[in-house]
């Protein structure tokens, strides 16, 4: 016979597992693109939404390209003169807009 404490622990474990699964699913299928980089700008993690927008596969980005490689010429100049120095000094920077340069040659804008 299962005690109330066993039942509560089982429900708690199930709830925790569901939260962990849904957090990864939310990241991967978010309505916005997510990208994490190493300190040198090398892409370390990218979600499925951004991959779809860029028309690229994860293996083409992670560990191979830097964030600035995804930017248009103007976007790269802005990143290198404004965002990268702010990241180096403060460890964070707020970016509200950037333009990509996907392999198709057609630029995309993101807010």
TrEMBL record:
All copies of domain PAS, residue ranges: 19-71
PROSITE patterns, alphabetized: PAS (PS50112)
Name of the protein: PAS domain-containing protein
SUPFAM superfamilies: PYP-like sensor domain (PAS domain)
InterPro entries found in the cross-reference section: PAS, PAS-like_dom_sf
Gene3D superfamilies: PAS domain
Provenance organism: Lentzea pudingi
